[in-house]
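Hi there, hope your week has been kind to you so far. Thanks so much in advance, here it is.
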Amino acid sequence: MHDLSPRRRLLILAICCMSLLIVSLDNTVLNVALPSMRRELDATVAGMQWTIDAYTLVLASLLMLAGSTGDRIGRRRVFTAGLVLFTAGSLLCSLAPSLGWLIAFRMIQAVGGSMLNPVAMSIITNTFTDPKERARAIGVWGGVVGISMAAGPLIGGLLVDSVGWRSIFWVNLPVGLLALVLTLRYVPESRAGHPRRPDPVGQLLVMLLLGSLTYGIIEAPDAGWTSPLILGCAALAVAALAGLLVYEPRRPEPLIDPRFFRSAPFSGATVIAVSAFAALSGFLFLNTLYLQEVRGLTALHAGLYMLPMAALTFLFAPVSGRLVASRGPRLPLLVAGVTMAASGLLFAAFDAAASTPLLFAGYVLFGLGFGMVNAPITNTAVSGMPRAQAGVAAAVASTSRQTGGTLGVAVIGAVLAAGLGGHAYTAGAFADAARPAWWIITACGLAVLVVGILTSGRWARATAVRTSRTLEKIAAR
């Protein structure tokens, strides 16, 4: 892709960003629609959690498979298949007759979505080979998440209030079809020189680990934490994790290469991604329910309330990308950790939800922090790896994000459901039930801060250089 003109490279970046937009938009739009869906489909808190987590769970389970498959059989081919499947899944979601069908169609969407983000990141990494250009491109990519946060609640609120919640899935259809046409016309095919072989056992173990863990957390408030079902889920998750730790290092080309984690920045990016996206998904889940169910706002007004958070994310994502390109990832990570933790603390310790000025202060702080965190995650995950393995490295980063999002909704929803205990959504009951959840979000912000400090110094950079050399030697054999 070295001979591509600057204009063609920018067009390829725009096409990849369109795919990220519809995948990211899908969850932010859906959050605003949750109360309407709950009423029409007669769903519980657990049912609402599953409409989000069925999607993020499948996405997290298949991202690494999709990244390595794109490296092997062709990135454009896998990307195109993902666009077709995601768009078709969106259409099916809009026609879902019940909660069960909606969850099933969300999983079809997610299979398509898993073929988009890691493959798109791999295409970007191989299109922008200059490190500074790549960092700027990744900053733009991070800004798209901000656009989806800004546009999602507004578009979702407008559609839910005027047409109904089913229309939120129609947004994906024109964008998906346009991206498909442009991909076929302008994106060149590319493959890794030495792609990884499939690892079906590793893939199955990842799916068992994430699936059993998420199912156990979501269903525990109803089934009971010590019920045979939940204890069985816990045992299955532990067994799957043990299987991964024993089986994967013995494979010459594992699904999750343990050698990647010898790089402290890469390991740090993984932990930070899980923490940041757990905080985001929990934050959106709590606020959507609070604004509509407790304050009684319409879907559109709830979206407008959350606009300061979205606007700050949108504004600071490209700033973060430029800072990473010029000064490295440490400063954006420190700012992100401090502001996200401060936002959680406002809600946990000072009951910010009860005071509109404090509520908006919490939104501004969280939006600023989340805007700063995305570019360092992505850049750190892919910049220290050989370009031939860009798909797998990007997929691990994307998997960490989706795993964080899945666990955030599962844990925060479970804590909220346990605290409410079947009570109505009154201001007092909701505030008491949500307080432990806000402390969890605060802890996620502190994790971003501490891990960011530990994995962005001179020692950490040296581990990244050693890891990259090791991987390049292995790839050259």
